[in-house]
Specification:
Helices cover 41% and strands 21% of the residues. The chain is of the alpha/beta class. The protein has two domains: 250 residues, Aldehyde Dehydrogenase, Chain A, domain 1, CATH 3.40.605; 186 residues, 3-Layer(aba) Sandwich (Aldehyde Dehydrogenase, Chain A, domain 2). α9 crosses α10.
């Protein structure tokens, strides 16, 4: 049995019976049969169904958000915003998929030559708990609009969210098998990947999970897209608007209780403004309410599991033992972790070197722009970087030097359906969203005709 437990009060919420091998094979067969029909449907037909998904998401957002809050602890207002964003990505691909996948004429010595974009088939999506709706829909919306079918292996602690997503697609009129969820644990993912009818895999999750899935898919010569961890730097230059930077940094670090791959995790501050920034940042931290995720004014909920809070506590302790200075916070009670600020963090310390998945952030100071870039790049991850400065022309010249999938200037790193999303180095490969995301799981076919 797979169990879902409320991390705020420890109460068991739901139990789900794990699929047997026979049930997994049957689900894959159904997804494959559905694809053979779905791939021949028109874009108008797909668009109509996906638009209905967006409507259902908006109509039921409070209910879907509540499930998210009780299963993984996300504050309710942030959970509602997540559901609304899912509706946005559905509308976006319903409106633009046909354009993104239109055949492209190419001038060659042929009578006619062009490139077409055709669906691959069944795609397995292995998804995490931290954004239990958004991570799924940013894959599902482009995948089904491209003519693929999707199988969802969701994180074990958000299986009710997974059920909700499957039901939304069915209630919107999608044929059975176009999008369905598999109630299975991680140990059975390999079995799904090895099924000949599964053509590709996408994973959002940890680096070890990514390595495992990539290895299994590689053995089968199947396409993968990996969106893994991040340790994004938040750089504040000497000439930055400190008040705006501090306000943005609070959201960039602490939304979703700091449990985000693209959260700001390393504060890199110019030495001349460090004290002023820290003062404003501390004041903002003290205003954030911690408590019951279902209360509307809660900004810091609980972490999704107690063991995750214990890991974060260990990272903090090891960093402090190496000489860092605790400025604010540091307390833990079961799955709740107090928002924490640490100063004098150096590159060899865990809060700098490792990904910190929770409401803790460390400060490292720099004296020059070159030093800031080197510190930002001194990480095995490369998902994104936040830079605050008023010298836009100068920082634009430096953009190519950042080893990241995204550079956000005077704004926090965030995902947007209109922009490609993904990383380099240990943050993974491939892209989601925009026209680049929908083309990850298609056959880019060359057609050459002589008359």
């Amino acid at each position: 049995m797979i169990k879902s437990v409320n991390p705020y009060n420890g109460k068991e919420l739901y139990e789900f019976e794990e699929f047997s091998s026979g049930q997994i094979a049957a689900a894959v067969d159904q997804a494959h049969k559905a694809h053979l029909e779905w791939r021949n449907s028109s874009f108008d037909h797909r668009r109509k169904h996906l638009k209905r998904v967006a409507e259902l998401l908006r109509e039921g957002k409070e209910n879907y958000a509540r499930t998210m809050s009780v299963e993984m602890g996300k504050p309710i207002t942030q959970a509602i915003a997540e559901v609304e964003k899912c509706a946005w990505v559905c509308d976006y691909y319903a409106d633009h998929a046909q354009t993104f996948l239109a055949s492209e004429l190419k001038e060659t010595d042929a009578g006619e030559s062009y490139v077409s974009y055709e669906p691959l088939g069944v795609v397995l999506a292995v998804m995490p708990w931290n954004y239990p709706y958004w991570q799924v829909f940013r894959f599902a919306a482009p995948a089904v609009m491209a003519g693929n079918t999707g199988l969802l292996k969701h994180a074990s602690n958000v299986m009710k969210c997974a059920q909700n997503i499957e039901k939304i697609f069915l209630d919107a009129g999608f044929p059975e098998g176009v999008f369905s969820q598999l109630p299975i644990g991680s140990k059975k993912v390999k079995e799904v990947i090895e099924n000949d009818k599964v053509r590709a895999v996408t994973l959002t999750g940890s680096e070890p999970a990514g390595r495992s899935v990539a290895a299994d898919a590689g053995n089968q010569i199947k396409k993968t897209v990996l969106e893994l961890g991040g340790s994004n730097a938040f750089i504040v230059m000497k000439d930055a608007d400190i008040e705006k930077a501090a306000e943005t940094a609070l959201q960039a670090r602490f939304q979703n209780t700091g449990q985000s791959c693209i959260a700001a995790k390393r504060l890199l501050l110019h030495e001349d403004i460090a004290e002023a920034f820290i003062d404003k940042f501390k004041k903002g931290m003290l205003k954030m309410k911690s408590g019951d995720p279902l209360e509307e004014d809660t900004y810091i909920g609980v972490m999704a599991r107690e063991d995750l809070a214990e890991e974060l506590e260990d990272q903090l302790k090891r960093t402090l033992d190496m000489g860092a200075e605790l400025i604010l916070g540091g307390k833990r009670e079961k799955a709740w972790f107090e928002p924490t600020l640490v100063d004098k963090v150096t590159p060899e310390m865990p809060l700098f070197r490792e990904e910190t998945f929770g409401p803790v952030i460390g400060v490292t100071r720099f004296s020059t722009a070159d030093e800031a870039i080197n510190l930002s790049n001194d990480s095995k991850f490369g998902l994104g970087v936040n830079i605050f400065t008023n010298d836009i022309q100068q920082i634009k010249k430096m953009v190519p030097r950042f080893e990241e999938g995204a550079v956000f200037i005077n704004e926090m790193v965030k995902s947007d359906p209109r922009l490609p999303f993904g990383g380099v180095k240990a943050s993974g490969y491939g892209r989601e969203l925009s026209e680049h995301g929908i083309r990850e799981f298609v056959n880019i076919k060359t057609v050459y005709i002589n008359y």
